[in-house]
Amino acid sequence: xxxxxxxxxxxxxxxxxxxxxxxxxxxxxxxxxxxxxxxxxxxxxxxxxxxxxxxxxxxxxxxxxxxxxxxxxxxxxxxxxxxxxxxxxxxxxxxxxxxxxxxxxxxxxxxxxxxxxxxxxxxxxxxxxxxxxxxxxxxxxxxxxxxxxxxxxxxxxxxxxxxxxxxxxxxxxxxxxxxxxxx
Length: 183
Prior knowledge:
6 helices; 9 strands
């Protein structure tokens, strides 16, 4: 996680990573793995805010993991970035929480997002955070992640959730998109 991204995360997400070492350790493991077809999403739930942190190989979004080399590849990259920024199209939160999309921040050195330098031949990533402002996010009984619908190369999504009711870990794949938050 870059310094700029670390500063952009809400306090609860930072506290969750500090208080719940398993969450931070698992995130580091996901990032190091760089497995095509697999993405990871960490979710921090506070009363008035819900934040998702995304980490995925760029190949999952584009079919290549380098800077675009021609107009067709640039168009594909622009479309993928637009799809990620329109998070309400791939994230659905239980309406009981009263959440509205507040901010999407994306980083990919290969795409020139968020700074950094991409060296040819390196595995390229997309990292990001999606923040929702909520009436009461703790009222959500589920969250649906449609990354595999939005990006056909995503086959598996490793999800970790940290919130007032504790933490949970799920792997979404196949037709499964919903994470139940009910205990």
